[in-house]
Design brief:
The complex is a heterodimer of chains A (261) and B (159).
Chain A lengths: L3 H16 L10 H6 L9 E6 L8 H9 L12 E8 L4 E4 L13 E2 L5 E2 L6 E9 L8 H4 L6 E3 L5 E3 L9 H5 L6 E2 L6 E2 L5 H4 L6 H5 L5 E5 L6 H8 L2 E2 L11 E4 L7
Parallel strand pairs in A: 1-13
Antiparallel strand pairs in A: 1-11, 2-3, 2-6, 4-5, 7-8, 9-10, 12-13
Chain B lengths: L2 H24 L4 E3 L3 H4 L1 E3 L1 H7 L7 H6 L3 H8 L8 H5 L18 H8 L37 H6 L1
Antiparallel strand pairs in B: 1-2
Classes of the chains: A alpha+beta (261), B mainly alpha (159).
Chain lengths: 261, 159
């Protein structure tokens, strides 16, 4: 027969053992402390979109799909252009046919199951185009939800996906408030815009920036004070998308209208 | 302590040990916490280099200029100065070895990306000369009348 004293002692011992987290058994790694150090960073990639210059030609989407091997005819893209038509009656119509890969050729607005919506010229209050891409957030929710460490942020701020490590659970696709993530139909892994990491790492600009004939897209290093993109962001009236989510997006927009979501 | 405690405990410890051994074998050495800390920087470091090694397909005008300087100069003076060569000629990866010639997109839909008329005066599209693709000489390619490297509609109309 076990005594009351022994029972209480053993219970407390076992509970204490269970409560000891597995991480406490891990050997101390000085690299972990270094990982939290903020100094030494010289590059932080940011993006600047001038919506007032965008004509919806879609050359950026075409270049992006080819450059990054996104299946050309599949309905997925790392970047896309949205058309906003706001009528005088106060209605907001948005579409992006095939992610605007072939531009916007007709004035009819694709309203999915409700068909193509034609709007008369006199009815339009304002109409404009908004290019979208990954915001490379400073607080990326897509990275937080990854259960295996397949998506992560590099020291220069770009969020990448490790295709070999991704298990395809889709949490990140749901976690992104901007809807920029999708499944790559060929690699069967989560896919997203990475500011053409192979190009910016070699001193080039992203494919979409090079392809844009109007200078509506620009990529720059916010930590370089002489960068024209940094100067614009610091001195002009820029905005970001869905600031209320606290994701700290790093794609800045000039000429954003309140209808843009 | 009794045998009925030690035996399952030993079995459990063996299982944990086995899992740790498997982890040692399958998790690469460079997998761990990197620059952005535990929350955002937990990854396989070698993957960054894998992404950087992705081939560059669009070589930009800097590359085209090496062999076609006159075409670049001509284009730079024209209204189409902002359009890079590869937007119409296709990505230059491998050119001139493979492929020796690039496939030029001369389709109407390429020009229509900017020149199909859309009544959006408040956007930059409204500042571009637009046509109705369906009624403006639908039988012909645009390049039959318009020279894309230096488009000057009035002069061309006289020719």
């Amino acid at each position: 027969m076990i005594s009351r004293r022994a029972f209480c002692r053993n219970t407390l011992l076992i509970l204490g053992g269970i409560a000891l987290p597995l991480t406490a058994l891990e050997l101390f790694d000085p690299k972990r402390i270094e990982a939290y150090r903020e100094d030494g960073a010289k590059v932080r990639w940011v993006f600047l979109v001038d919506t007032t210059r965008c004509t919806g030609c879609g050359f950026c989407v075409k270049a992006c799909k080819i450059e990054n091997d996104t299946p050309y005819d599949a309905e997925v893209s790392r970047t896309w252009v949205e058309r906003y038509v706001i009528t005088k009656a106060g209605e907001t119509l948005i579409d992006s046919p095939h992610a605007a890969r072939d531009g916007f050729l007709s004035p009819g607005i694709d309203q999915a199951e409700r068909g193509i919506r034609g709007v008369d010229e006199e009815e339009i209050a304002k109409a404009f185009f908004v290019p979208k891409l990954c915001n490379q957030c400073d607080n990326p929710p897509c990275v937080q939800v990854c259960p295996v460490g397949a998506t992560y942020q590099t020291a220069d701020g770009v969020v990448l996906v490790d295709r070999k490590w991704c298990i395809g659970c889709g949490y990140c696709i749901m976690g992104c408030p901007y809807g920029v993530r999708f499944f790559h139909p060929v690699h069967r892994a989560a896919e997203k815009c990475n500011f053409c990491y192979h190009r910016i790492s070699r001193g080039m600009k992203t494919a979409c920036v090079d392809a844009c004939p109007f200078g509506a897209r620009k990529v720059g290093n916010i930590l370089n004070q002489d960068d024209p993109v940094t100067k614009t962001i610091m001195t002009e009236r820029v905005n970001v998308l869905k600031e209320e989510y606290g994701t700290k997006p790093q794609v800045f927009y000039l000429g954003l209208s309140r209808e843009v979501k | 302590m009794k045998n009925h405690i030690w035996r399952p405990l030993l079995a459990a410890l063996t299982l944990v040990g086995l899992i740790l051994l498997l982890r040692l074998a399958f998790v690469p050495d460079d997998f761990g916490v990197h620059e952005r800390g535990y929350m955002y920087g937990w990854h396989r470091k070698g993957n960054e280099a894998e992404w950087q090694a992705h081939p560059i397909k669009y070589k930009t005008d800097v590359y085209c200029k090496e062999c076609h300087p006159r075409k670049i100069e001509e284009l730079a003076k024209s209204l189409h100065a902002g359009i890079m060569c590869e937007n119409c000629h296709g990505p230059a990866l491998g050119h001139p070895e493979d492929p020796p010639t690039l496939t030029i997109d001369r389709s109407r839909s390429l020009c229509a990306r900017c020149h199909s008329y859309l009544p959006y005066r408040s956007s930059a599209r409204g500042q571009i000369r637009g046509i109705n693709v369906k009624t403006h000489h639908p039988e012909a390619d645009c390049v039959l009348c318009h020279y894309p490297h230096n488009p000057q509609p009035y002069r061309q109309r006289r020719q």
